[in-house]
Each structure stands twice: as C-alpha cells, then as structure tokens.
DNA sequence: AGCACGCCGACT
DNA sequence: GTCGGCGTGCTC
C-alpha cells in the first residue's frame, strides 16, 4: 500500500519534517505530491490540513500508520517546481516548510480551523457560555476566547454536558452572494400589502419595493437588495413566508476596468540596446540577471513591456513585480493596455476571493502576464520567459515575517529552473545589487537619458540653519513657501514630502519635562489632531490628550515636532486658497484610500500633495513642477548602516517626481545637514558617486555588501529573561563560528519594549561560515521546546531593519 | 496546540 | 493506598 509523506499544518509548528500516512486504495490515483489532504493527527485524531510531499512504497516509521482521511484537490495546487522552491525557501530563510507552502498559495486555499461546542444538556441559568450561543455563529469558539470561558467549556465537557467538534472549512473560494428573486407576482404583492399590519414598517417597506419592481416580477431577473433601511432579518423572514426566493449565486469578481489597447512606443537607442541584450539572453535560454540602472523617466517600463512581449511571442509567460505602493491603476493600466486580456494582477487590495480567482487564472494558463507585489513571486506561471523586479532597491520586497524571504532571491531561484533572464530595474539600485553588477555576477545595463528631451529637475538644498523661517512655523522655510505660492498662482501642482505622520512628534510637560509615553512600548506617543488623541505607531495604543501633566498636574503641556497633520494645517494657514491632500498611513489605511488620493490629485482636485514616503514612490503626475522635502534629515539620523542609502534613494526618487512632461521641475530640500554626502549627491542626481562613496564606508565598517549579516533576536515579557536568553544563545553560538566572524552585541533593540515584549538582539557579520546555517537550524529547533515557552526567536538573514 | 504520561502531595 | 496537581514530550 502506498505511503504519503505529508507536511502538516500544526499550529505550533514544532516540526519541520513530513509524517507518513497510509493512502487508502481508492485514493491512490489522487494521492500525488502537491495536493492538499486532511489527515488525523495526534491522540485526538482531529483532522488537520497538510500537503503531500512525496509518495513512497514503504514507510520507515515503526508505529502504526493512520490513513489519509480526505484528498482536497483533484490536481495538485503546487507543482514540482513549487515544492522544490518551498524546500529551498525553508532552508534559505530558516522557516518551516509548512509556512513556505502556505505562503505560496492564496489564502483561500489555506485551512481555516474552527472549534465549535454543542450542548448535550441545558446550561445553568447564568452560565457565561450563553453569550457565545447568542452570537450569530452560535457555539463557535473564537480563537481569542477569554481564558475563563475556555475553562468553563472544558469543565462542562468533562462533565459530559457538551462536546467540542473540530472543523476545517476551506475559506470561500468561489464568491457567493445572496441573491433574492421575486417569487410572487406584482398583484400578489399588492394583496399582501393590504393584509400586513400597519405597524410592520419593515415588511411594508419591502412590499412597496417589491411592487415598485413590478417590471421585473414574473421574469427571472435577480436583483441585489439594497433598499435603504431594510434589514437582513426582514429579508430572511420574507423568504420564510415565501415572498422571496433566496439563492447563493456565484459572482465573478473582476472589476474589469476598461483599458484602451496601446501600441509599443519606439525605443530610444539606449533602450533598444538594453532590449537587444536582454532578448538575446532570452533566446538562448540563459538565466542571466540584468541590473537595469535607469534614471527616473528614462523609460525602464517600456523596456520591460517589450521584453514581456518577446516572451509572449515565443509562447512563454512573463512575471513582473513592483512594490505594493506603486501598483497603482496607472501602472496596471499600462501593462493591461499592452497585453489586453492576458494580464493577472495580484496585490493586497484584492479580497481573498479576488486573489484566488486571479491565482486560478494564472494556474490554468488563462493569464500569461502577471503583475504583482512581493508574494506574486510565487505566481503559478509555467514556461516563464522573463521575470522583472522593478524598483529592486525597495525594502518592501523583503517579507518581515515567516518566511522572511526576499522576492529578488525567489525570482533568481525560479530563473534557474526556467532558464530565463531576470531584470532588476532601479534608478537607485541597492548597493548589494550594484556591487554584484560590478563583480560581474549581474550584467549592468544603463539608461542615462530621458526621452523627449525632458530635463532633469533643478535641485536646491535649503540650509535650515541659516534659512529665513516663517515665524512660529520652524519647519517651513520662507523660500519653500514662496515657491509653493508661485505654483499656486501658476495653477501648477506641488508634492511635499514629510517623513513623519501624525500631528506632533511628542507631548512634553514644560514644567517637569515629563514626556507622555506608550504604556506598552518604550516610545513617546504621537499627537493626532483629527482624532484628538495620542497614538502609538508601534502597537496601535490610543489614548485621550490629557489636559494636565499626569506627573506634576501642570497645565503647561505642549507638543513638539511636526507631523503631516501639523504641516498641513500650517500650510493651509499660510496659503488659505491652496487645496491640500494629505497622504499617509492615516488617510490611506482604508481599502482603496491610496488609489483615491492618487486619482484626486491626478484629476487636479488639489494643488498640494503632502505625505510620507509613499508620495515618493511610483507616482507619475505630469503637472507637478515643485517637489519639496520638509525634513531630509529624519531618515539620516537613524542608527542603521543603511540610513544614508535610504535617504539617498528617497531624495532621488522624490526629486524625479518633478517636471516629467514639458515643464521644467524644481526640487527644494530642507535640511540641517546640507553638507551630508547623501543629500549632496542626491541633489546632484549622481548615483555613481554615491555608490562609490557609500561602498567605501561599508568597506570600512565591515557592512554589506562586504559581509553577510544575520540578525538573531529574542523577546520575552520579562526583560531579565530576554537578556539571559540572548547571552545564552551567544555563548552557545560563538564557539561554532570562525575567528573571522564578527558578533555585534548582545544589545537591546533601539525600542527595547514593544507591546510589552522586551527585545534583545545579536548581529552576526560573516563572509564564510560553513557551520553557521546548521547551527541556526538547531537553535530554532531548540527554542521550540517547552522550556523556552514565552520566548520568541527571530532569525533574519540579511535583515533590512537593524533596529 | 492538544493530549497522555508520570512523578509528587493531601485525602478517603 | 488513590485522586489529581501540572511539568514534559510526542504527535505518522
């Protein structure tokens, strides 16, 4: 009898190896690697979801095998390539196989475990469990259930008064909407209208609506009930009375925006040269990595599109990743316009079901081109001919939780399988990539000119130590405000970058110096004017603004430092006619909020777009002639060796937003460090010089790309526990490293406490440590044991954030 | 995460 | 002697 090796979804994930299960005779045809199965697990025998990893003839397991309970897929959801990719990913990122497999799939295919209790005997009069039964999903035990309720459930279960069952429901994969059909004629509704009690407001409202729908009555027209004021309960009552017929109807979610087909633009000679090199590599099926370094506006996208076209012409597919933030309608329309009907889009704005639909279209081969954010690196395309990573320096390509993968590494790995080239594109490549191009591991392609003779913007650095400042508004120089005013008069648009959201940075008592801090984190709270509250940007804690100092009760408490909200208010006071749009986490958090703001600004419904980093990325507004950076220094002062690189990239990018069409753009950068090289070289738009200078610094400090880095971080509710553990880890790890490896720390993280967890960390810098990876795998396993309960360990290879 | 096994204390 | 506390370790 066949034996399936199954990777199981165990919540605690204490294991990383497959478990063997017997395949019942009638399921052997379906039991192939990559299909999802339900298997009994543990003494309880509760079913869990898993993936068949391999099918073998005989098990090495000495005990009695349990049988596979159910096979969930007719065709594997993960093919051989994906399974191999998962294995590599798990090793490369120190994560569990199961989490890698899950990450590759749309969440609609992930198991959704539910615990539900059923009463066998009536509850006591005031039993707290009654509250759970009264909810709509009667008897469902929520994951975040209060401990005392859970204890009560356990108690009753032991007394035999209730049972708990465990269900695995697949999250809805097919979008279903409740649709109501009229089941009576208009006349019959009229009749009912007469007989219903006069105070049955809801029923009358419904009947009036049904009568008004008369033209539809009698035919099969279905309609969605969206009558204002009508409650869902009334509808279900109406169904019971036979007034209406309800049914679940599958709805296709493809918000098909009308796209006009576009034709390829003629390439400039530089673009043509890059394109020719790339397609040569495609034709020869080489997995070359190209670093396409092109200044903003030099037309990288046109090269991507032509390369993708070349793949399609050869019967292959194309995968293009862009940062989430630049996956705007502008970008999507551009790709869809070029390849109408062939494009699937994957981004976080899609619902679970929409994502699944797009994933299916890709998997079935109905879409040959995929545009998406980070996780689209796992798009189930076959016969990939070209892969593109736009804005390759963006840190959002690195996933911050398990598995901590970098989309770039995934693409490069897949390129080996498909023998196809990868294009990494950026105006300001990451130092890692640029250095690899230097060493010849990547092939460097350059686009140095903007087509249509658009000039590079003129960049001015304003020295805030000497600049005229507007009285009382210490963050705005007179020069910048004059420039804003000038654009306002000319009916041109401006973009302002301020790297801090909220209203004020912190709230301080002028008498005793007390700063109001988050009760859960070691960080001061940020003042938000719109909600009139103090917020913690790390844990989300929110509290009212106190009228007196909590320490000395003085009324003399003030806020310091400017955030987007305050600057918005200040500019509004200075330029009363200006229409200002604010774009930051607070205004874009809701679904579609980001798009809405971009659309509004693009449609000239505002004169000034003021926002955090996100205004710098991927936006293309032709009428913006002024870009202002209010505080270029905030990102510089961070204790992170990448601070200069980030500042340079941000300033260069935001500068590129100015003057893209026929109008010359101007950039003003306010700074207290005007002589800093990152600011100087960004204003000169000189990437090469920055690269040389920064490489020198990295070499001296022994930082990437000269060294590999690994961050090991431990957190615990109690500080002394976290400290003890990190030293214990260091003592264990150090002897396994060579002399050449450098261990920084242990140190407390910059913000030591977040959400009442204390964080301590170690950074290992190394060039070649053959034993390190194995040791870290062991460490992860050791940390899973019960003696280490309460600790969380994080092993992050090439971390983006060192703080 | 569950669930059982097992090794110690306070009771019929 | 045994009932049950929850520390420890396994789950095919």
UniProtKB/TrEMBL annotation:
Keywords: ATP-binding, DNA replication, DNA-binding, Helicase, Hydrolase, Isomerase, Metal-binding, Nucleotide-binding, Primosome, Zinc
Binding site for Zn(2+) 1: 509, 512, 549, 552
Cofactor(s) demanded: Zn(2+)
Helicase ATP-binding domain: residues covered: 281-447
GO biological process: DNA recombination; DNA replication initiation; DNA replication, synthesis of primer; double-strand break repair
Top-rank taxon: Bacteria
GO cellular-component term (any): primosome complex
Catalytic class of the enzyme: isomerase
Cofactor details (free text): Binds 2 zinc ions per subunit.
Span of domain Helicase C-terminal: 544-698
Quaternary assembly: Component of the replication restart primosome.
Xref: NCBIfam families: priA, PRK05580.1-3
Family: Belongs to the helicase family. PriA subfamily.
This protein's name: Replication restart protein PriA
Species for this entry: Lapidilactobacillus dextrinicus DSM 20335
Gene for this chain: priA
């Amino acid at each position: 009898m066949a034996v399936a090796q199954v990777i199981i979804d165990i919540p605690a994930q204490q294991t990383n190896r497959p478990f063997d299960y017997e395949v019942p005779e009638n399921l052997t045809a379906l039991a192939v690697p990559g299909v999802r199965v339900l298997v009994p697990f543990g003494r309880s025998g509760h079913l869990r979801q898993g993936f068949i990893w391999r099918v073998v003839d005989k098990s090495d397991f000495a005990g009695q095998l349990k049988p596979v309970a159910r096979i969930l897929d007719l065709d594997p959801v993960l093919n051989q390539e994906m399974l191999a990719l998962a294995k590599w990913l798990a090793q490369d990122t120190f994560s569990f196989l199961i989490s890698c497999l899950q990450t590759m799939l749309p969440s609609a295919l992930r198991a959704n475990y539910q615990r539900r209790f059923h009463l066998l005997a009536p509850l006591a009069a005031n039993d707290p469990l009654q509250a759970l039964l009264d909810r709509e999903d009667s008897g469902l035990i929520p994951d975040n259930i209060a401990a005392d309720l859970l204890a009560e459930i356990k108690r009753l279960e032991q007394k035999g008064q209730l049972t708990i069952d465990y269900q695995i429901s697949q999250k809805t994969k097919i979008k279903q909407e409740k649709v109501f059909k009229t089941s009576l004629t208009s006349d019959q509704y009229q009749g009912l209208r007469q007989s219903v009690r006069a105070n049955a407001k809801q029923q009358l409202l419904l009947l009036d609506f049904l009568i008004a729908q008369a033209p539809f009555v009698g035919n099969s027209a279905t309609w969605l009930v969206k009558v204002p004021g009508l409650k869902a309960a009334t509808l279900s009552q109406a169904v019971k009375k036979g007034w209406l017929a309800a049914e679940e109807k599958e709805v296709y979610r493809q918000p098909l925006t009308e796209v006009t087909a576009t034709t390829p633009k003629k390439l400039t000679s530089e673009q043509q040269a890059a394109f020719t090199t790339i397609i040569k590599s495609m034709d020869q099926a080489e997995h070359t990595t190209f670093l396409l370094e092109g200044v903003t506006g030099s037309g990288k996208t046109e090269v991507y599109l032509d390369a993708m076209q070349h793949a399609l012409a050869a019967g292959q597919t194309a995968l293009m990743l862009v940062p989430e933030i630049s996956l705007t309608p502008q970008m999507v329309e551009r790709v869809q316009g070029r390849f109408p009907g062939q494009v699937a889009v994957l981004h976080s704005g899609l619902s679970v079901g929409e994502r699944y639909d797009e994933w299916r279209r890709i998997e079935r081969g109905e879409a040959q081109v995929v545009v998406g954010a980070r996780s689209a690196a796992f798009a189930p395309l076959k016969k990939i001919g070209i892969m593109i990573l736009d804005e390759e320096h963006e840190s959002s390509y690195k996933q911050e939780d398990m598995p901590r993968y970098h989309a770039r590494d995934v693409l490069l790995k897949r390129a080996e399988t498909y023998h196809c080239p990868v294009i990494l594109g950026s105006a300001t490549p990451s130092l890692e990539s640029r250095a690899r191009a230097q060493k010849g591991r990547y092939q460097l392609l350059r686009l140095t000119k903007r087509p249509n003779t658009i000039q590079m913007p003129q960049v001015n650095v304003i020295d805030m130590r000497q600049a005229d400042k507007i009285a009382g508004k210490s963050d705005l120089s007179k020069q910048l405000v004059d420039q804003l005013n000038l654009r306002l008069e000319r009916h041109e648009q401006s973009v302002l970058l301020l790297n801090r959201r909220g209203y004020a940075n912190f709230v301080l008592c002028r008498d005793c110096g007390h700063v109001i801090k988050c009760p859960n984190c070691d960080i001061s709270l940020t003042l938000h004017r719109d909600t009139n509250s103090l917020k913690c940007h790390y844990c989300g804690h929110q509290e009212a603004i106190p009228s007196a100092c909590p320490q000395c009760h003085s009324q003399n408490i003030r806020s310091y430092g400017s955030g987007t909200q305050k600057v918005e208010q200040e500019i509004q006071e200075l330029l009363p006619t200006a229409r200002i749009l604010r774009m930051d986490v607070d205004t874009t958090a809701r679904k579609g909020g980001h798009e809405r703001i971009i659309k509004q600004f693009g449609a000239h419904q505002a004169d000034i777009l003021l926002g955090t980093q996100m205004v710098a990325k991927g936006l293309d507004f032709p009428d913006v002639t002024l870009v202002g950076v209010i505080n270029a220094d905030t990102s510089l002062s961070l204790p992170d060796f990448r601070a200069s690189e980030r500042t340079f990239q941000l300033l260069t990018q935001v500068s590129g937003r100015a003057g893209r069409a026929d109008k010359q753009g101007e950039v003003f950068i306010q700074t207290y460090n005007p002589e800093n090289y990152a600011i100087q070289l960004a204003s000169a738009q000189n990437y090469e010089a920055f690269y040389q200078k920064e490489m020198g610094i990295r070499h001296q400090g022994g930082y990437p790309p000269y060294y590999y880095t690994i961050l090991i971080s431990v957190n615990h509710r109690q500080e002394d526990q976290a400290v003890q553990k990190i030293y214990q880890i260091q003592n264990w790890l150090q002897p396994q490293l060579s002399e050449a490896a450098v261990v920084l720390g242990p140190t407390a993280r910059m913000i030591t406490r977040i959400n009442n967890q204390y964080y301590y960390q170690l950074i290992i810098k190394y060039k070649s440590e053959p034993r390190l990876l194995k040791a870290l795998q062991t460490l992860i396993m050791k940390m899973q044991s019960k003696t280490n309960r309460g600790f969380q360990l994080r092993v992050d290879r090439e971390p983006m954030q060192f703080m």
